[in-house]
User: What shape does this take?
Amino acid sequence: MATGDMAPEDVDLLCRLAYRSGLGDATAVPPKPVAYVRDGKLGGHKPGIEAAREEYEATCFSCVAQLLEKTGADPSAIKFVITNSSLFNPTPSLSAALINRFKLRDDVINYSLGGMGCSAGVVALDLARQMLQLHPGGYALVVSHENITNNYYTGRDKSMLIPNTLFRANGAAVLLSSRPADAGRSKYTLRHVVRTIMAADDEAYRCIWQTDDADRNHGVMLKKELIGVAGRCLTRNLACLGPLVLPAGEQAKYAGRALLRAALKRAPARPAAAAPAAWRAPYTPDFSKAFDAVCIHTGGRGVIDSMEQNLGMSKAMVEASRAALYEFGNTSSCSVWYELAYAESFGGLRHGARVWQIAFGSGFKCNSAVLVANRPVKDMHAAWSRFDRSKMYAQLEAIDADVAASRARRAAEKAAAASSSSN
Assistant: This one.
């Protein structure tokens, strides 16, 4: 690991966070930020925009080239080019860079989405869908990216160091079609998109905040309210998504519990207090009955653990998300595509399989997309060709053992201190 003139305690924090978050050793950081830290330039000028452009071109131009080769799509049929990058928005735009590189038509309509966080990939997907519905008969190219070089934080604020720990180089390209000729060969149909934004709530709006620290180092602050905000935003998103995807039995249980809770609120205090606690809690539907594959934004191991436990998902259903975090780190808005590629590479998806992509982002947003497989999909992606599942689970088990030992040690020290003070 390159440490340069970083303070030892900051190095220790970053190492512990990366390890306990479930990142493996193969995650990629662009060379310029590494050299910047290694050469002891913290506090000086960052690598700059040209280095950030190089990262974007290296990660995204290759994705688009492979996509066009794989699909055999004629670039001249592309009507829309949509890019999303929350924190790197140069001029000319990222979408214009793609038009230049692949020499697309001069009447192509391009959009570059910025500032929309890790859920922007679903936002871009939704925009592409709407454009193709309004202007049928063509392709929409969607390219998702988050730039590490441009946004590498060089200060000491611990709340702003966390992104350095989790985020890694990334790029993903997707082609959508509204051409009737593509109906038989396309992999998926985009069935639903559900978007939730809580920006009207001040706490939610400010829980992920791009700012400067006391020394004017530029970065993104993750506030302690983030976890609670994410839970509330997820609940609202699921309330809208549930009726669209849940089987009738789960919807009936949800409605029944809601009626029961309403009745308890109107009941006299003594009978209401005697009711089982479970009756007073909202029913959490089993979303594993609605989907065959789930792609959870790789915001961190805690995000995946929470989704698994609170929504009753099996270990197999969240494996793609754990694998993407382990192999590639937090790849921001690209992560749901890395995970779909994992599902296609290992086991594949049957005809009619339902895929749920869910991502969280600044604002605060929770966005869901539901894809349905048009045919059996089994496709080994080059990005996953060297993945070692057993190595990942061995590391996760070691992390769990380390965390358990650390908690036991702290508990013993606390007990010893309490005993000493009582004596």
